[in-house]
Design a protein that fits this description.
The complex is a heterodimer. By secondary structure, chain A is of the alpha+beta class. Chain A is built from 25 helices and 51 strands. In chain A, β13 and β14 form a beta hairpin. In chain A, α7 packs parallel to α8 and α12 packs across α14. Chain B is about 20% helix and about 35% strand. Chain B is built from four helices and nine strands, in the order ββαββαββαβββα. In chain B, the strands form two sheets. Chain B has a five-stranded antiparallel β-sheet with strand order 1-6-9-8-7. Chain B has a four-stranded antiparallel β-sheet with strand order 3-4-2-5, covered by helices on one side. The longest helix of chain B has 11 residues. The chains are: A alpha+beta, B alpha+beta.
Amino acid sequence: MTRFRIQSPKGAKQIHFTFNGKSYQGFEGEPLAAALLANGVHLIGRSFKFHRPRGIYSAGSAEPNALVTVLHPDGREPNTLATTLEIYEGLEAVSQNCWPSVETDFGAVNSLLSPLFVAGFYYKTFMGKSNKHWMFFEKYIRKAAGMGEASVEADKSVYEKTNTFCDYLIVGAGPAGISAALEAAQTGKRVVLADEQDALGASLIGTNQTIDGLLAGAWLAQQLATLKTYPNVTLLPRTTIYGYYDDNTLGAVERVNTKALRERHIIFHADKVILATGAIERPIVFGNNDRPGVMLASGFGTYVKRHHVRPGTNVIAFTNNDSIYQQIDDAYEAGATVHTVVDMRESLSDYAQEIVTKTGINVQLGKAVSHVLGSKKIRAVQLDDGTKLSCDLLIVSGGWTPTINLQSQQGDKPIYDDSLCAFLPGLPHQDYLSVGACNGQFGLADCLKSGARALGQDRTYTVERDAPWDILPVWEVPVTKGISFVDFQHDVKASDISLAKREGFISVEHLKRYTTLGMANDQGKTSNLNALALMAKERQKPITEVGTTRFRPPYTPVAIGTLSGGKYGDHFRPTRYTSMHEWHINHGAEMINTGAWVRPRVYKQPGETVTDAYIREAASVRNSVGMVDVTTLGKIEVVGPDAPEFLNRVYTNAWLKLPVGKARYGVMLRDDGLVFDDGTTWRLEENRFLMTTTTANAANVLTHLEYLLDVVWPGLKVKVISVTDQWAGVAVAGPNSRATIAKTVSGVDMSHEAFPFMAVMDGFMDTIPVKIARLSFSGELAYEVWCPSHYGLAMWEKLFDAGKEFNLTPYGTEALGTLRIEKGHVSGPELDGRTSLDDLGLSWAFGKKDFVGKPLSQREGLMASDRAKLVGLMSKPGQAIRPGSQIVTQDNQTRSIGHVTSTTYSPALQNYIALALIQNGRDKIGDTVIATYPLKNEQQDVEIVHPHFFDPDGSRMHV
Amino acid sequence: MYNEYALSPLTSASFIQTDQLCVKEWELASFIQIDCWSGCEDQVIALLTQHQDKRFLVLHTAPDRLVVVSTNHDLFEELSALITQDVGMLTQLSQARTAFHLSGHQAQTILQKGVAIDFAEPVFPIHSCKQTSISDIGVTLHRLDENTFICYVFRSFAPSFHHWLTRAI
């Protein structure tokens, strides 16, 4: 036990931790700040800009100074508040923003130059007419300043997200929150009481005030025990409500801190919110008020009463109000004394006088602390009358600022109260109530009463030793020596406020941005009001006319991992698998993501590259037979008596006369006349069609169709339903495809005459019901075979076995692309949202009847003669063409006339080929142009050819 | 009736069973969507109610849209005869969905990690359903009793949903 440890926490386990490499002892679960103070450590880090020594200023989440970096075996977490970090065995924490050590920091030279580093210094000094200077200096400035360094390692902690619905969400478990919860519990409705501290009770913990005859601590224990008996009440310590959003939705972080789960991101959906968020004590602005050893009185009280740690042994208090006497009295009872109070007021209240008498403190009335002496730890204070008083701790109270961040996030405009020297919540924008100190009820009795009143109960609590509210509105002591800081975390000085005013930045919004006041990760919790008061003084206006800025979420910083709620890595987005997925994996498929789907890219054989594999697969299709998993195609049932009419309006070509048992290729346009999607649609029954879409566009097409039915043609009796997941599909392609299918299917005459091109038949594969459509994407004799998804694997295996005698080859998306490029069939790269029917050579599908997109498809821009048209490109032998290459001519190599959309090596043509969109391309067939890829500094000559490279008359698929 | 070739996407998945939570696949024989023509929904509901003999459950998933669910019976042909095309259209989705059965006191807790749905019974009554998404996967969430739920998910997403569920537990 050190001389700073008053007593050991009851039942707490002693553990070891290190700070800046030095080993210390502490008690498990106590804040790092308390453990360091117990070990006599006050110097925690260096400040943001001036590298000034900084210590522990408070005891909660408002802490501006005591930021540390926590080292983990697999990374580090910067900017962690020592005041809220609960210590554990083996914790390693280090100071930040200092080099080589916190004791000797070379960056402290900035402090000597502080008169130069005024608000706007960087912009004034490093920004010239161009941004060259800034670009040069920025990296050095950022290196010299800043907070901790982020870890480059992946965060291996586990997080989760959950939703909680409740009737009452009570934010803050201080006296007002507890009394509100007690009333809410009795309603039988669902109540959640959340507090950011590890123990519920806030100011009730350790105070010698009494409530209804009981010491506050005993009263608290009794009420918490009562609340725990209610099954409808949930108590959530260590839970910070960080954001208040629309519809009474609030974001929260619960610090679970177990190996299995670090933090839980809770989204609250509350019927009614009761904000009992308390108040934050304010500093007073005076010379060197940032030195280690200067601390808010409430922080001192917390360390003494709750953590049984004495932050100093020679303590002076400095105040303009009565609340500090409460802390002095409580600390006195707990075994920590203050020897002098410097009170700016001319006289004491009876309450303060009683405590002064009881504790025997020396009182300096009508005086102020002008500045403190000492650098890495204070050693004395100097009063404005020149008196020097030695001390090792100065506790300060400049009044209390209600914590109205959540109300402000909601757009609630705060109202300034002169008598309280504080902004209070304005009119609520949602169904919430502010109670207790955050609403200006600073006395304990008032807090308790306001909590009960939130539930409509007029309850009176008898409180003894309740501090009265008496404050002298003094914010600053004129500086005579040292620097007086307003915003500790961003090193904003009182003189910066004056400078901002002189330079015209008088609006609070400009003041904030010009000085960066309140923009650090503490959001100016301890600084905002002082800054407003100083600006008001500069402008000689009341504070209420200066106004205040609006708080934004989060109230306290939230880890990105917590916000992700576990949605990272394998959980970042879901994946879709076909029925045949395992088979693909077991047969050496290299898989590729296409949207959410995972598909085989190639089935590599030993020693093969991807290119080798797809060339082999494509050649096998041309020479014999191959099969590919096409389950991923979008499938939409279009049903109802008006389905033919609907399709006739959606597609550019005619659909009214498509007979049952036949399929047709169709193209649909967007309203603006550009091509939206294509695919085949099969007429299964008189009133039932099965539409297929591209894999990537399935959801968009369904949305488009639903929009048309709901909004444009609500009178049509048509329904559209996604059946993508109902069917597993295989495309069997190649000269031996018919023979392969015929071996496995019963009930279907596979002859060309009985089963012509674009026919659809029902059959069975053993007992599996299948639908077979004679379609071809590859340009070969080909069929698509579909069955209900559960049988997909069985169907695939049966076809694979049947094809063995023909050396059937499974193929992936690469070969699929090769085959369609050889045929000049368009796909995603060509359907890029910028092409028209004519651009793609699909004018034949432009029907005479009306269809979606027809009017705008004939607008001037889409009819222009110089539009890019689909053509083929043939490279010089052996030269691959990069997709995305720009096309230029020999005459003008600086202006692109088009681009390459799709490329492949063609085993049929024994050369690299490509599809491209080139201005007026069809008139350039036979020309040689240059495909250029500036990113790689590559150029090659290519010949423009017809896009149908292989079997242009389609004879192979009609056999 | 379908046959021995049927393979669930969860064939190789492992499930959890504790005192607080039991998760298993609820094998679907029927998941048939009925899209009613405007003004015909009541008629369809009446037909289904008259025909109801505890072999199936009916979910009201959207205006003019019902789903008939059964674990034992393939009802498509039977319902096609019952619900004629002048009142609505049937779509066979029995193999388009995979159903997860969650029961036990932890069931709500697990589901709340994925959905912003209030499980209070006045808001989410027993035998009703909600259309929602969990981890970006579309889900029809069907409440059978206080702590028993069925999650119908698209078949292709079933392994991903199982992955999410395993982690949430």
